[in-house]
Specification:
With 1127 residues, the protein is of the alpha+beta class. The chain is built from 36 helices and 19 strands. Helix 6 packs antiparallel against helix 27 (806-831).
């Protein structure tokens, strides 16, 4: 290379330089084509970038002499192709049956586009097989004679990249096709999708207008700032920068502000106002209007009884045909579910009302629980201690010399480690500094007294290690090194020419390479490791491990007796001895290419906080060759129930008492909810109980949160007391002598510093479980507080809004999950091989959530593939952030306005108790209503009755009553008393019917009903009025629980009568469907047959008459001709 450079290879006339090569990883069976590109511009600036292109070529295919690309196909590929052909045939048949109507359904275009992409993906896969030149050349290479060229790998990669991108788009469409299937089976999802389809045209027009503004900002930014700001130097850069600014990216903002202090911020402000704020607000308004329209049209369709016709048309679609086999069981389940229990009552704002006593009790529990939780965790002390120990581990540096250039770096820290050699250097150079040099300070001119174990003085002198002056490292062998090795096997007969030599050692990666994560404690799949010295390949590493280490329970072991999981090496407090051991490990390849995990753990004690910190430094060696480093400090306390914590003990007892109280209350409500189940068969009873539980828990989310939070608290209490009463918490103490002799081992649970480290690891693990459950439960406790804030009118509106929109938000959440998963899977396929943020599905989902909330750094994605990056981010911006995202605002806004209107209508009656009483007296004098019960203090009853009046209006609208009829219903309910109907017995004949009918407005549609329907309505009203009178009379003179019992019995009576009426209606409908409609269908069929027969006979008769007429004509002609010939 030096000779090339000296010869003028990169002279002034050079326009650029490209360096490319291929790297093979046998663990993942992957070739990576690496391209380093340097471009020299006319201005003299050098632009550099790189591309990494992975290509999967299996080792089994490389070593096969008769390898053929079609051998890659499996039974799954053939099954997929057959299913694709079946779906295409079904859609063709639908087209033949429907004709043009097939194109009228909005989901048809999604279906057709999805099938087109599936077909394109199959074709691109076959094209990729035809371009597998690189794999074929590698398969034919023998004895190191590698014939493959980088041109071949480039062609194969281009074909593979095209296939992957098409597959990504196909998978994206497949996820959105799932929305179609859900919308056909779930009402809430159908409404949301209908709203989204209804806003599609508006969103499309808004997108076109936004694109005009977008390109205006892009071009103007390029013209204004392109000469000085790199982000706008080209139209492509301006395109990317403008897109990222819409996602909230701030890097370009800072660069613009620095270069253009006035015009830069003005440009950004205009961009935010016009493109971000205005477009987003308009899209919210569009989604809100579309959601209202969807609900309106759905109600209109229900009133016109056209839903069955729509479903009948939709049932001809492919998905309906696929699910037709389950339709019978689905209908039975639906009918049984509907008959098992009554529907929930229409809820009012009073349903969430809590008495002042319950509110006070709740906030006492809230204070006790949150305070006890804070005292249990003690976050401030924990952070101070853990950060102190972590800084002692991460601060020491070591020196590294580059093999090629000979350059030396002396500022290497643990965060700069990238290879096995770096880990060995850190262990030999930086780890001794952590142990022996992190506390060099003196106190009053003398050495730190904590370095001496004073309990053993004056008989013996023991030293101990100190970190950052005040943190003692426990034990005389306080630091443990744990190493775990891969189980290696020689390639041997599986050698592949010059790609894999026969003497190469590979890790046992069956069935696939093990990824190391979670601080070296989790392997996916489980680690195939070396469990004996004989399985360590390197002889020098085998010798040094045998000299200093033992295979036993080690870091992250679950069982001290039965879970040997690594080679454990203990380091002494003696500096020279420990330094010699670490140097011996570094010189003899203790860390080598067989290493899977190297962990260093120890425990420190801080006397000020009276707390211990268990620290683990973990180096994870991934099968890809990467080395990941984690420093994990965790604080833990022992003796949690000493006298100084008496106030926390009292708070814990109160929190447990209240938790048991609320748990009992939740279980009681669950049992009460199942009492109203219908009688019937065993299956019906089970289904009824399940339905009652489901309604109780999920129609009111607070009931579910109460139960879940109470159960989580009980679980947390068990884990917590298992933690505080563990063997370590009860029996561990600082001995007079820190050495582990026979006497101490016989009187203690432990015998060695490694066993103490194991106990502390178990203690930390249990504390982490407590923190996880506690964190979740604290969140639930704060949410549960919303129920008790409902005593405030405005807060009650918010709570009822959340409850009313819970089901719609749940359906929206399902659709949002589908949208995020669609982009996550698409991004994983399109960018997973070249961008680290998308290398796993989990990280892809995290990136999509960051894009959703505008928190993602776009630099890596932009540099990977500019074209796909723009398509991915722009479509995500339009579909998810401006379409899906704004639907939740439409849902909440609609329910909020409805609930707020109910509150305002209810507040109209709050004109004071006296005015309300005068209004009720006036109603009694005019309409003969009985006196109204006295209003409760504060107008509470009046507000509830006003809200019930709104519900009556809603029911009146649902039954298509006229406006005056609704006003009459409003008038009756607002009087707070039922109508007397007992006078009907004093009236002869049907005079009472005429009297009631006269009270109905003349404009009402009631007068246009058939006479029998009028009679039924009046008789039902009479029966209900008598029942209300009876219940009211029974409630007179009672108070307290008697009133509550009377109201509950009245509620049960009404529910019983409603169930009877519902059952009667369903039986009548069933009888009509099974008998009358069937016979009517037969009559229609007979009529059609008769009509067809009559038409046929008429046709035959007409034909015969025509034949007769022709015969008569022919006879006349013949007779005429005979007479003429006779003459």
């Amino acid at each position: 290379i030096l000779d090339w450079l000296a010869g003028g290879m990169l002279s002034r006339g050079a326009a650029g330089l490209a360096v490319d090569f291929a790297v093979h990883n046998p663990n993942f069976e992957t070739f990576t084509w690496c391209q380093l590109v340097f471009e020299v511009e006319g201005s003299g600036r050098v632009v550099h970038h790189y591309h990494l292109s992975p290509l999967l070529v299996k080792n089994s295919d490389l070593k096969a002499r008769n390898f053929h690309p079609w051998a890659e196909l499996t039974w799954l590929d053939y099954t997929y192709f057959i299913v694709f052909l079946v779906l295409v045939a079904i859609e063709i048949k639908e087209w033949e049956q429907r004709g043009r109507r097939y194109l009228y359904l909005p989901w048809t275009f999604v279906t057709l586009l999805s099938l087109i992409m599936h077909g394109t993906m199959i074709i691109s896969r076959f094209v990729y097989f035809s371009y597998m030149d690189f794999g074929l050349l590698l398969a034919d290479a023998v004895d190191g004679g590698l014939k493959a060229s980088l041109v071949a790998i480039q062609n194969q990669h281009d074909a593979y990249r095209a296939f992957v991108c098409i597959a990504a788009v196909t998978l994206w469409l497949t996820w959105f096709k799932a929305v179609h299937y859900l919308s056909c089976n779930f009402k809430r999802i159908e409404l949301i999708t209908a709203a989204m389809w209804g806003s599609f045209t508006y969103i499309s027009h808004l997108t076109c207008m936004a694109l005009c503004l977008f390109f205006a900002f892009m071009v103007s930014g390029h013209i204004l700032f392109g000469k000085s700001v790199r982000a706008y130097s080209t139209l492509g850069q301006a395109l990317m920068s403008t897109t990222e600014l819409m996602f909230g990216e701030t890097d370009e903002v800072l660069e613009l502000e620095k270069t253009y202090p006035v015009s830069g911020p003005a440009y950004v402000i205009m961009h935010v106002v016009l493109l971000t704020a205005v477009v987003r607000s308009v899209s919210k308004a569009l989604m809100r209007t579309s959601f209202e329209d969807a609900i309106f049209y759905d109600r209109q369709a229900a009133k016109r009884n056209t839903r069955d016709k729509v479903m009948e048309v939709e049932s001809q679609h492919m998905m309906r045909k696929v699910s037709s086999a389950l339709r019978g069981s689905h209908n039975w389940l639906k009918e049984t579910w509907a008959a098992s229990a009554p529907l929930p009552e229409i809820r009012t704002l009073a349903d969430v009302y809590q008495s002042p006593l319950s509110v006070c009790l709740w906030f006492v529990f809230f204070f006790c629980y949150v305070t006890a939780a804070y005292l249990m965790v003690q976050v401030s002390w924990s952070y101070d201690l853990t950060s102190s120990v972590a800084s002692a581990v991460t601060s020491p540096t070591f020196t590294k010399t580059e093999d090629l250039t000979g350059a030396t770096r002396s500022d290497m820290t643990i965060h700069a480690i990238t290879s096995h050699e770096d880990v060995a250097l850190w262990m030999s150079s930086a780890l001794p500094k952590v142990m022996f040099n992190s506390s060099l300070g003196t106190f009053a001119g003398t050495e730190n007294f904590l370095k001496t174990y004073h309990a053993a003085l004056p008989l013996e002198t023991f030293t101990q290690l100190v970190v950052n002056d005040w943190n003692i490292i426990l034990g005389q062998e306080p630091v443990r090194i744990t190493t775990r090795y891969w189980d290696m096997q020689r390639v041997g007969a599986n050698a592949i020419g010059s790609v894999l030599a026969s003497d190469m050692m590979l890790a046992n990666n069956e069935p696939e390479p093990s990824e190391v994560s979670y601080g070296g404690t989790f392997f996916d799949p489980p680690l195939q490791e070396a469990t004996s010295l004989a399985e360590i390949v390197d002889p020098r590493a085998r010798e040094v491990v045998g000299k200093h280490c033992t295979y036993k329970f080690a870091y992250a072991s679950e069982d001290r007796l039965n879970d040997a999981n690594g080679f454990s090496c203990m380091l002494s407090v003696n500096a020279s001895e420990t330094t010699a051991i670490l140097a011996d490990m570094a010189q003899n390849n203790f860390v080598n290419n067989q290493s899977a995990v190297v962990a260093i753990d120890f425990v420190t004690y801080n006397g000020f906080a009276q707390a211990f910190v268990y620290t683990a430094v973990v180096f994870q060696f991934q099968p890809s060759g990467a080395v990941t480093t984690e420093v994990i400090p965790r604080m833990v306390r022992l003796g949690m129930y000493s006298g100084q914590y008496w106030y926390r003990i009292i708070l814990e007892i109160c929190a447990i008492f209240f938790t048991l109280f609320y748990l009992g209350k939740s279980l009681t409500n669950l049992v009460r909810a199942t009492k109203n189940s219908a009688k019937g068969t065993r299956a019906l009873l089970v289904l009824s109980a399940f339905r009652a539980l489901f309604q109780h828990l999920f129609l009111d989310p607070f009931n579910f949160m109460d139960l879940l939070s109470s159960v989580a608290t009980i679980v947390m209490v068990f884990i917590w007391y298992g933690h505080v009463f563990s063997k370590l918490s009860q029996d561990f103490f600082m001995a007079e002598r820190p050495a582990w002799d026979q006497a101490r081992c016989s009187s203690s649970e432990w015998c060695g510093d490694d066993e103490i480290l194991f106990a502390f690891h178990q203690q930390v693990s249990s504390m982490q479980a407590v923190l996880q459950v506690l964190g979740l439960n604290i969140f639930l406790v704060f949410l549960r507080s919303l129920r008790y804030l409902s005593m405030l009118p405005r807060a009650r509106v918010v709570v009822n809004t959340l409850k009313a929109s819970a089901l719609d938000i749940g359906a929206y959440f399902v659709l949002l999950v589908i949208a995020v998963c669609a982009y996550a899977f698409c991004g994983h396929l399109a960018f997973g091989g070249i961008v680290q943020d998308f290398d796993t599905l989990g990280e892809s989902i995290v990136v999509c959530l960051q894009l959703f909330f505008g928190m993602y750094e776009h630099t890596n994605l932009r540099g990977a593939d500019g074209g796909w990056y723009f398509l991915f981010s722009a479509s995500f911006l339009v579909l998810v952030r401006y379409w899906f995202y704004n639907m939740v605002f439409a849902i909440v806004d609609l329910h909020f306005r409805h609930v707020d209107n109910c509150r305002e209508e209810g507040m109209k009656t709050l004109q004071g108790p006296e005015r309300a009483a005068l209004a009720s007296l006036k109603e009694w004098l005019v309409h003969g209503l009985r006196r109204h019960p006295e209003p409760r203090e504060g107008g509470r009853l009046l507000e509830d009755e006003g809200l019930k009046r709104i519900n009556v209006q809603k029911q009146a609208k649902d039954f298509a009553l006229g406006e005056q009829d609704m006003a009459q219903a409003d008038h009756k309910v607002s009087s707070h008393a039922p109508v007397h109907t007992s006078h009907s017995s004093e009236t002869d004949g049907d005079d009472w019917k005429k009297a009631l009918e006269m009270k109905v407005s003349e404009k009402s549609t009631f007068h246009h009903l058939p006479p029998e329907v009028k009679d039924w309505a009046l008789e039902t009203a009479k029966m209900l009025g008598e029942l209300i009178d009876k219940q009211y009379e029974e409630r007179q003179g009672k108070s307290g629980k008697e009133v509550e019992q009377a109201m509950q019995s009245a509620e049960e009576e009404f529910r019983k009568r409603r169930r009877q009426a519902t059952t009667g209606v369903e039986n009548a409908i069933k009888q009509l469907r099974d008998e009358e409609f069937k016979s009517l269908k037969e009559i229609h069929r007979d009529r059609e047959s008769l009509a067809w027969y009559i038409m046929k006979r008429e046709t035959d008769l007409s034909a015969l008459e025509k034949k007769l007429e022709d015969a008569v004509k022919r006879s006349e002609v013949r007779r005429h001709s005979v007479s003429s010939s006779g003459r």
